[in-house]
Amino acid sequence: MSQAKGYAAQSAETPLAPFAFERRELRPNDVRVDILYCGVCHSDLHTARSEWPGTVYPSVPGHEIVGRVAAVGPEVSGFEVGEIVGVGCMVDSCQHCHACDDGLEQYCENVFTMTYNSPDRVTGENTLGGYADHIVVRQEFVLKIRHGEEQLAAVAPLLCAGITTWSPLRHWKVGPGHKVGIVGIGGLGHMGVKLARALGATVVAFTTSPSKREEALRLGADEVVISRDADEMAAHTGSFDFILNTVAAPHDLDPFVTLLKRDGTLTLVGVPAEPHPSPAVFNLVFGRRSIAGSLIGGIAETQEMLDFCAEHGITADIEMIAMDEIEEAYRRMTASDVKYRFVIDMATLGTAA
């Protein structure tokens, strides 16, 4: 076992605080990663505050991890000590179902193992995430990072926000000649704009806030539509090949469905606490339009995304914080007061703990 330091929630009502715990001994195919940076995802907050059911305490969140390989098991062949790597939302899966065989571990028919708040497939113990000084992960779920050292903090959110938007863009074959909408300009949406633009699509950003118009253009949108403006929306009726909806609050989907071409798809990646209002069937059947969903991405997709981002100089827009600033970061994140992702400098953990 190795002694680890981290930050944990002990209950839904208590703030995250220093926490000492043990990581497992390396199994033959394990990689130990000393964590340099960990992004802060809204899922972390949902879990720590038990806003989603099933939180097991103590809970150490964090699944946007960039670090350095510190040790490898005897059967590890793809990683070497000193290499910069990433760990995302998954740390294991059954590896033998149809989904896993297809490289889509996020849809594992026997349930993938989450980086935190999930039972380890061998011991059954609760997984503890990246708000810590190191983590131990089987090699199949460790990713190579090819960005420069100066970009590593801004790479961390790619392990969740990046792959969550990349996977549907690739699945629905977004590229040159496509008109693509991105709904919501936040942690997910800002990555959707960057990636869709880099894939060669014409990108239209949708926001409810006129104040975000210039920001969306800066991120790479060709046009910005204020979704509360009926005239601006109507001007795009029936013109989109694909729309990616990143908003995690319940809202009417019908205005976006009507913007799709025949055979167009509206894909949801934001997960609201309450259901969206039921869409009108008329808008779907008269146009053979679809509403779909997408969950993060498989390991092969994630590596593809990281390599693409390194080649095109793409990272997340971030604000760096110290470990002991996490509660304030959660407060600001709830208020949508971040552009666009907080990242914890794990070098501050020693001071905080």
Walk me through what this model shows:
This protein has two domains: 2-160 and 316-352, Alpha-Beta Complex (Quinone Oxidoreductase, Chain A, domain 1), CATH 3.90.180.10; 162-293, NAD(P)-binding Rossmann-like Domain (Rossmann fold, 3-Layer(aba) Sandwich), CATH 3.40.50.720. It has twelve helices and 17 strands. The protein is of the alpha/beta class. The mean pLDDT is 96. The radius of gyration is 20 Å and the shape is globular. The chain has helices at residues 42-48, 98-101, 152-155, 161-171, 189-198, 213-219, 230-234, 254-257, 281-285, 299-312, 326-334, 349-352, and strands spanning 2-8, 17-23, 30-40, 65-72, 84-87, 90-92, 113-114, 134-138, 143-144, 179-183, 202-207, 223-226, 240-245, 260-268, 290-293, 318-321, 341-345. α4 crosses α5 and α4 (161-171) packs across α10.
Secondary structure layout:
Elements: E1 2-8, E2 17-23, E3 30-40, H1 42-48, E4 65-72, E5 84-87, E6 90-92, H2 98-101, E7 113-114, E8 134-138, E9 143-144, H3 152-155, H4 161-171, E10 179-183, H5 189-198, E11 202-207, H6 213-219, E12 223-226, H7 230-234, E13 240-245, H8 254-257, E14 260-268, H9 281-285, E15 290-293, H10 299-312, E16 318-321, H11 326-334, E17 341-345, H12 349-352
Parallel strand pairs: 10-11, 10-13, 11-12, 13-14, 14-15, 16-17
Antiparallel strand pairs: 1-2, 3-4, 3-8, 3-17, 4-5, 5-9, 6-7
